[in-house]
């Protein structure tokens, strides 16, 4: 009787181990897929940050280039007040 119980326990352990090994393989495949997805998302994030920095740089000219507030005549030493003699001034 004791031998039968021991054999049953051994068979149960074998089946459980085989099942656990299969589960481990599935989990490892899922882990690899997740790592690839994380790497892809990190690359997308880095590219988006680069594009945002480039857009911010393009949209924010340096203070001395004469394009402050959309008026080319306003630069260093320029006047922000309207010129009454300027024929191209918006009215």
From TrEMBL:
Coiled-coil boundaries: none
Region named Disordered: 50-91
Keywords in alphabetical order: Coiled coil, Developmental protein, Differentiation, Flowering
UniProt record, GO biological process: cell differentiation; flower development
Residue ranges with Polar residues bias: 80-91
Family the UniProt entry places it in: Belongs to the FLX family.
PANTHER family xref list: PROTEIN FLC EXPRESSOR (PTHR33405:SF17), PROTEIN FLX-LIKE 2 (PTHR33405)
Record protein name field: Uncharacterized protein
Organism: Salix brachista
